[in-house]
Specification:
The protein is of the alpha+beta class. Helix content is 34%, strand content 21%.
């Protein structure tokens, strides 16, 4: 394999999630894009003062560049983002996506609401990516190729890799 192919493969691996070595393999969920999309579309944005504060915090991170292991607005990864936005509203959660998945209260995709964490299996072997649901079918996450962005949960890449929905609010 040439150096160019190795570099390209490494870039693709980074683009699909936060970690290449997930720990949590849990039972996972079997999600169909249309089922998740209809449930996600029915739930709106923030409803209370805590959720409004969380929403403002999440918005302030949009556009932050991706840095593996990062935890600040100069660069952040997916689980660093979720940990920091929850810390800003007084909720302490673990650092790694797999640990966040284990600690979160399980939520059915049909019960999805603002502030829930969406855990993805992007590597094929467990939880390797996380984002925050912001309502109306969208979530915010730290993309390794685009930084912190708002993304449709109905996107085929994400809807087919959703492993768990969890709640800390």
């Amino acid at each position: 394999m040439t150096a160019g192919k190795v570099f390209c493969l490494a870039g693709v691996m980074l683009a699909v999630g936060c970690s290449t070595t997930p720990v949590y393999t849990g039972s996972g969920l079997r999600c169909e894009g249309s089922t998740l999309s209809s449930a996600a579309s029915a739930s709106g944005g923030p409803r209370g003062s805590l959720e409004n504060s969380l929403s403002s915090e999440i918005q302030s991170w949009l556009g932050t560049p991706y840095v593996y292991g990062g935890e600040s607005k100069s660069g952040v990864d997916c689980s660093g983002l979720t940990q920091q936005v929850f810390a800003a509203v007084g909720i302490s959660i673990p650092r790694r996506a797999s640990e966040q998945a284990e600690a979160a209260q399980d939520v059915s995709p049909g019960e999805l609401r603002f502030g829930d964490l969406l855990f993805f299996n992007t590597s094929g072997s467990g939880i390797s990516h996380v984002g925050v649901y912001v309502g109306n079918g969208f979530f915010v996450h730290a993309s390794s190729s685009r930084g912190v962005v708002r993304q449709s949960i109905a996107h085929p890449y994400y809807s087919t890799r959703l492993a768990k929905v969890g709640r800390f609010l």
